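User: Run a structure prediction on this.
Assistant: Running it now.
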Amino acid sequence: MTSSGSFKDHFSDVAAAYAAHRPSYPNALCDFLARLVSARRLAWDAGCGSGQLSLLLAGHFERVVATDASPEQIARAAAHSKVEYRCARAEASGLPERVADLVTAAQAAHWFDLPAYFAEVRRVARPGGIIALISYGVVTADADLDAVIRPFYREVLGAYWPPERRHVDEGYRSLPFPFQELAAPAFEIRLDWRLEDLVGYVGTWSAAWALARAEGPGPFASFRRELEAAWGPVTAIRTVRWPLALRVGRGCDSSRLRRSG
């Protein structure tokens, strides 16, 4: 994200694949976040993509406002009676002041203009509200699959990852976080997938698309062949996992809101 108001759009062109193949989050994560807030009136999910986290939050909050700067992503989001999708940047949500009990950004904060986003969080969050930045790194499975996935991720795609990706690899610990930080338990996404699910997911990586534009389909086709060889029968179901990294904090109080305004 830049201060001019444009944003680094790595996913509009893959919005359909993103909606089809990006994993959702564990219900235990939403249970944990919901227990931290004093009320469950409104959750704001910034950089919502096609609503992977937004839909889960709807099970805990009276209302969810889910925003993304990409109209293509919003168009692919699954409808829910308690979720209002809006095309808006994370730095300018359009929400009134002090309305959000919970503010989340899942696999998105590393793309934001963080000073501007944090200012918006302070404006929108209720005093004492909770902010949670959530990310997951490279997918992992059994050793035979990891031996194919990890070299592709690090070596073949290495030069094609945007620089912001390092924050994901570092579990968001390198991001500033100007809030009262709270301890969070360990969570992971865990899914039983077929080969096509994993191939489709890897195809949504921004670096995979950059590689294809630069070098054509050959490198990804080679990766797929190696993955097929390691997978076993094409109909086999394998367990894949993503450990989650969380930065969870309690929002600013009303006096800080007045000073920041």
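The CA atoms of residues 151 and 157 lie 9 Å apart.
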